[in-house]
Amino acid sequence: KGKDHAVKSEKYTYHLSVCDALQGDVCTHKDSKSVASCQTDGNSHKIAGLTTQILDFVGDQIILNYTGGETCHKVYNRSTVISFSCSPDKHPGKPVFIKETSDCIYTFDWPTALACIQ
């Protein structure tokens, strides 16, 4: 929390924050105080999800789901799903881009010791 994380895919750079709004100057339009996920490509940017502190537990993973992003393909709203998985040697670890779905959901895996049950 309180730190932005940049993750590159083949085409875009994603800026993520955990349970808080992005601190940097990306996605600085449309109520940027609540933007937690942003997709950038050069000078353009798209809001990919708004902050929440609600976590879901699915199996052995902690899931953070940011919804309410900008419209995509004129039908969908962009959203971001970050799956935190236990990795005892990574503290805090870093997010890895997995894929973008056809309905504009950006998925990331984040192996981290912080997701391990003590």
UniProtKB/TrEMBL annotation:
| GO biological process terms held by the UniProt record | lysosomal transport
What keywords sit in the KW lines?
A: Disulfide bond, Membrane, Receptor, Signal, Transmembrane, Transmembrane helix, Transport
What span is annotated as the signal peptide, if there is one? none
MRH domain location, by residue? 1-118
Keyword Transmembrane tagged = yes
Query: Which Pfam family would be a valid example here?
Result: CIMR
A GO cellular component annotation here is: trans-Golgi network
Give GO terms: molecular function aspect only.
D-mannose binding; insulin-like growth factor binding; signaling receptor activity
- Chief place of localization: membrane
The places in or outside the cell where this protein is found are: Endomembrane system
Is ATP-binding set as a keyword in this record? no
Looking at the record's lineage, which domain of life comes first?
Eukaryota
Protein name (database record): Insulin-like growth factor 2 receptor
Native organism is Nothobranchius pienaari
- UniProt gene name: IGF2R
